[in-house]
Sequence to fold (212 residues):
Amino acid sequence: MTSTDSPAFERAWTRFASWLEANSPADHAMLRGPAVPERLIELESRLGFELHPELRALLRQHDGAAEPLAVPGSRARLPAGAFLPSGHRLSGVDDIASMYDVIVDVGMDNIDADLWEDDALAVNLHRCVPFALPNDGGVAFVDHRPGPSYGHVYEMGIGSGDLEGTLWATSLTRLFEALTDALETDGAFLCYRPTFFEDASSHRCLEWPTRA
Fold:
């Protein structure tokens, strides 16, 4: 499989989404409809380069995931839709554009700090496109630098100052294959193991706590 094999991505995503629909419908219900082609063109114009085909394919499936549902009879909200490790929620076009501006500024600060090698991820964030966000200031993104890292998926704890980045997978295809493998076998993805958060009304959604 090449890094631009979108049909392979679509198979991996369909497998993951089908698992959600069958086992965690509250999460699946948070997936928005597809991003319209015009919005993707606008996003690429803002970025100054084309989206990786797998990220484009993901956005053509779903323009991110909606915010949490209100829990009936409670002020609390079921954290549905944050079904990726570390509570990441898929971002839509608007959130991608906004967060991209943030990480570009972070990258410029890192360049000014003169603490990183030229090929370090921390100073090349202008070539990285976010696709999911948690609630703690982190970001998951797809590397768009030309070369062997093109298409790699990283998670970076920007809010915590962790700017080394953690490689989640060599592609979005591999990411969703690995996540679904863990879900189907009750296995682990890196340091995360899937389980369910359940509220008092027995509504539940997927979460990925770190292994002890």
